Amino acid sequence: MAQLSADCLNEILEYLEDDMVNLHSCLLVNHLWCKISVRIFWRNVLNYKTSNFRTLIACLPNESKEILYNNEIIISTPTSNPPLFNYAAFCKFLSVHQIICKLELLLNNQLLKSYNTSNNTLIVTQEIIKLFFNEISSLKKLFLWKYPKKINLYPIEKVCLKNLSELHCISNFSSEFFYQLSQKCHNLSSLDITVEQVISEGLIDLISTQKNLQSFGMTQVNVLTDLTLLIEKLPITLIKLNIHYDNFISLSFITRFINLQELQLFFYFEEDFVDFDKLQYAIFPKLQILKIQGACPRFELLVKFLENNGKNLKECYIGDLEDYSDNSLNLTIAKFCPNLRKLSTGFKYNELETMKLVFGGCQYLETIKIWCGGKFLNEKEALETVVKYSHENLYEIILYHFYYIQSKLLPEDLESFFINWTNHVPQKSLSLVIVNYDADSLDKNDKNMEIINNYIELGVIKKFKVTDFNDDEFS
């Protein structure tokens, strides 16, 4: 029987990177499969289970094991035999917070757990980080949020960081760490910062040394910090910008980034959109994704922004609070955003004609998220309009229920929708997603679920999912 070459097998198994169950099965096939699979299996700390950390503890050097023993930390390991591989060396994506969470869970599950689990977690975490920093050959992604100050990063000069592409960190992290990082790492493509009381000078220095920064994210909650120096160092070549703020911040600086392809803004109050009157006139000729979540700027400003920048938009999400929907905004989308593939918006009960115009103007729509309940269209009206006026590209409908709005969709209405969808030409398998907040959804009705399961078997429904506001994919 012909055997797959190592290169070919590696290409295939790469598709299982986030499928830990099947990847684990591949480890057991034979020596070649194991050798290739193990590198992928141990690549991302975010995918590790507590069993992975038991194995890592078995890999600790004697010096580290002695530290655990002296602190009366006894953790059982999978085997007393020497490890088959240098597992820590395979890690490319490292998250200190994930290490702490999994080790805390591991210690809490010990039969002979110590009364001082919190302190023991920090001790074990320190030794595991030393192991990683001694063994990792080339780190790609580093996550440092929620970083306890009692943990000392092992000297980073021992780690190959020239290929580090993604960094998530807090702004007041050690300047010395950032200075060391800036000496070795000049090719970050993505930087995500949580702003705390101060912004480290070392962080500003790190930003100024970057030659290929494309994505920048900044989150600040209930903290007033001067951002001037940090913002001035951002390269104008950015193509993705994500700002999540709970305080006033002038947005005029965004006009510098004329190469933006994706802009995300999350504010809690309309008054937080300081200087959006200046941003409304900015031209971003490459902008494809616009997400304004939470609150919105004044509608007349947003309308002007879409008139200038809507032509190339592929995805548009405007607000997700009940007060942030306006007929003029939807009319602008219908007129100035002809190339949209994904849209999230609300239509009030007297705006059915506007919804028809949106489908007429946005003929390439593939996904639409429709806000339902309260002052917005009910599920029946929304689904009837979608199936009647949407074009051939649409395949995903997301019904987004506000707060405690309960489903009022009757089984006969649901059946009628699926019959009409079946006759949709050309007929595409449908993805139907329900997003609600602890409310009765249509799936609570047994008759509805019987209908849905029937159409799943017929191939009319490709995916049906009920989720909540915490699901990042659909929120």
Features:
single chain, alpha/beta, 14-stranded parallel beta sheet, two-stranded parallel ribbon, 16 strands, 17% strand, LRR_dom_sf, F-box domain-containing protein
Total DSSP E strands: 16
Q: What is the mean pLDDT? A: 83
Shape by Cα distribution:
globular
The biggest beta sheet reads: 14 strands, parallel
Helix/strand/pairing category: alpha/beta
Walk me through what this model shows:
The chain has 475 residues and is of the alpha/beta class. Among the domains are: 1-41; 43-160, no CATH class. It contains 17 helices and 16 strands. The strands form two sheets. A 14-stranded parallel sheet has the order 1-2-3-4-5-6-8-10-11-12-13-14-15-16. A two-stranded parallel ribbon has the order 7-9. The chain is globular, with a radius of gyration of 26 Å. The mean pLDDT is 83.
Secondary structure blueprint with pairings:
Blueprint lengths: L5 H8 L6 H7 L4 H11 L8 H10 L2 H9 L22 E3 H13 L8 H19 L5 E3 L22 E5 L4 H10 L5 E5 L6 H8 L6 E6 L7 H6 L6 E6 L3 E2 L11 E6 L5 E2 L1 H4 L9 E6 L4 H11 L5 E4 L8 H10 L5 E5 L5 H10 L5 E6 L6 H11 L6 E6 L9 H12 L7 E7 L9 H12 L3 E8 L7
Parallel strand pairs: 1-2, 2-3, 3-4, 4-5, 5-6, 6-8, 7-9, 8-10, 10-11, 11-12, 12-13, 13-14, 14-15, 15-16
Helix pairs in contact: 1-3, 2-3, 4-6, 6-7, 8-9, 12-13, 13-14, 14-15, 15-16, 16-17
Protein name: F-box domain-containing protein
Organism: Glomus cerebriforme
InterPro entries: LRR_dom_sf
